[in-house]
Amino acid sequence: MSAEPMSADPATVHADRATPAPVPHRWLILAVLCLAQLVVVLDNTVLTVAVPVLTVELDAGTTDVQWMINAYALVLSGLLLSAGSAADRYGRRRMLLVGLALFGLGSTAAGLARTAEQLIAARAGMGVGGALLATATLAVAMQVFDAAERSRAIGVWAATSALGFAAGPPIGGFVLAHLPWGAIFLLNVPVVLVCLLAARALVPESRDPAGGPLDLGGVALSTGGLTAVVWAIISGPERGWASVAVLGAGAAGVLLLAAFVGWERRVAHPMLDMRFFRDRRFVGAVCGVVLITFGATGALFLLTQHLQFVRGYPAWEAGLRMAPFALSIVVLTAGGAAASVVRRLGRPAAIAVGMTLLAGGLALVTHGPADGYGTLLAGLLVMGAGCALANPAIVEAVMSAIPTDKAGAGAGVDGTMTEVGSSLGVAVLGAVLNARFGALLPAALAGAGSFPAALAAAGPDREVVTAAFAEALRAGQTVGAVAVLVGGLVAAALLHRADRLSARDRSAPAARADRLSS
Predict the structure, then answer these.
(1) Among 53, 25, 302, 35, which residue's Cα sits nearest to residue 175?
(2) Start and end of every Major facilitator superfamily (MFS) profile domain (predicted)?
(3) Element of type H or E holding 168
(4) DSSP labels for 4-19?
(5) Stretch 9-30: mean pLDDT
(6) Is there a contact between 228 and 256 (Cβ–Cβ < 8 Å)?
(7) How far apart are CA 476 and CA 430, in angstroms?
(8) Using alpha carbons only, how large is the chain's radius of gyration in Å?
(9) Which of 3, 7, 6 is nearest to 16 (CA)?
(10) At 53, which helix (H) or strand (E)?
(11) How far apart are CA 89 and CA 412, in angstroms?
């Protein structure tokens, strides 16, 4: 893809120009894209600190609160593939603007909600806008930057996502300390308005010239299948993995996704071209996204519990103490250091080194001295350095394995696999934590379903319960560190093998030609 210089009316990016001119203001465009991506990621975690307030002011039960938090992630993950396809077909700038508008409207509705049902519906609406933004921001970045600058741009985009993940709880806590809970969502509105105006003025339009009509069958099958699978993963720890609802939803989701694959192979204009999966680099990169996010997100989820329940920090302060993790990613990425190391090492080696650092930092936090903040700070900085290398390398591996005119589809796949891997990581490592905690509890407390419940029922044995939970967290975080390391090494090996086989396939015709000419 390439871009024409923009006039007062943003120019259209044409896919067929061989010598593209640099897009004016591309770094300013990236800042707008990152700001939009930041609010999308923030809203995955910002609500966690508001649970006590929402329970009282909206008279919300446990199920209501869970849906307030999960409705956003569930809708977002179910629509990512469809959103990416829509961006390619109808214009990435257009879908970026639509996503911003929907996200702004959903945020306004959430901030003004007066019942639990209204808030859940508004959060679902925000998920629709979030899916469009998560795919359009990455797809636009792929268009406005050439190959020489794309690695650094993707690194900045990935670092923004990490910053949003860590910044949610402290921002939410700060807002709640000074303003009503609705302000958590209403603060999104001015940010969205700024992004809307800037994107309309700066971002050039681009689309897949061979996009064809909307693949309605693919949209229905992928959305239904992904939503069912992610719901089963999210609900498994609470309802039980062997429950009829979880097994039924998981099985239905798998069947719908299998039908989606069959449909995409037959339809004339598929939303996701299944031929991409013949590319070893693409398959290796997609597997890597799932493996890496599984270990990393699950391990970080346990780390936040360690800070809150074992060290006793409130949610917002736990998030604040984890901020060096995200800030180190931003510093290493924005300065270009991470992109330089990735280019020098190559993507497979950068992923291996990065995930080894992440696993090592997590092991240091888990098994190092617990007194003071020094060990935690050192571990978070090592973890941040690892993510600064691995995250952009794996995103770039996915996006570079498909044509740039399918950037929306690539962003949809990357986002979907990230959501699936993250949900699995939280669910599986959470199950490890709960199983170990249950095994360590005294017999009289064996039926307690959670750490707060066990603590409330413990009476004079509160220290025993706290020690059991701390030990269970160490076990879960250790499994998470191993998962991070294994996932990173497996992903790196898959990509290295794919690169080697692709290089061999490219060199084979030349070798045959040399033999024939001699």
Answers:
(1) 53
(2) 29-499
(3) helix 147-178
(4) PPP-SSPPEEPTT-SS
(5) 60
(6) yes
(7) 7
(8) 23
(9) 3
(10) helix 51-57
(11) 13
Pairing of strands 205-206, 12-13: parallel
The secondary structure of residue 79, as a DSSP letter, is H
Check: CB of residue 429 under 8 Å from CB of residue 111: no
Integer CA distances (angstroms), 286 to 314, 348, 398, in order: 36, 13, 6
Pick the closest to residue 205 from 254, 153, 139 (CA basis): 139
In this prediction, residue 449 carries a pLDDT of 59
| Residues 28-57: tens digit of each pLDDT | 999 999 999 999 988 877 877 777 788 778
CA dist 487 and 300 (Å) reads 15
Distances 509 to 278, 503, 505 between C-alpha atoms, Å: 19, 11, 8
Structure tokens at 260: 């989606």
Q: Which residues contact 244 (CB under 8 A, 6 or more apart)?
A: none
Candidates 300, 294, 318, 517; CA nearest to 422 is 294
Give SS3 for 373. Answer: coil
**Does the pLDDT of residue 164 top 50, yes or no?**
yes
Q: What is the pLDDT of residues 106-158, one digit of tens each?
A: 999 999 999 989 999 999 999 999 999 999 999 999 888 887 888 888 888 88
Give the burial class of 434: count Cβ atoms within 10 A of its Cβ; 0-12 exposed, 13-18 middle, 19 or more buried.
middle
Rounded Cα distance, 134 and 416, in Å: 10
Q: Report the C-alpha gap between 253 and 246 in whole angstroms.
A: 10
With the C-alpha atoms ordered 93, 99, 100, 105, is the resulting torsion angle positive or negative?
Answer: positive
| Mean pLDDT on 260-274 | 88
pLDDT band of residue 175 (cuts 50, 70, 90) is confident
Mean pLDDT of 289-308: 81
Beta strands in 195-330 (DSSP E): 205-206
pTM value? 0.81
More reliable by pLDDT, 277 or 11: 277
Q: Where are the beta strands (DSSP E) in 112-256?
A: 205-206
Which residues are registered as beta bridge partners of 13?
206
Q: What is the DSSP letter of 308?
A: I
Closest among 424, 420, 400, 421 to 410, alpha carbons compared? 400
* 459: exposed, middle or buried (Cβ count in 10 Å: 0-12, 13-18, 19+): exposed
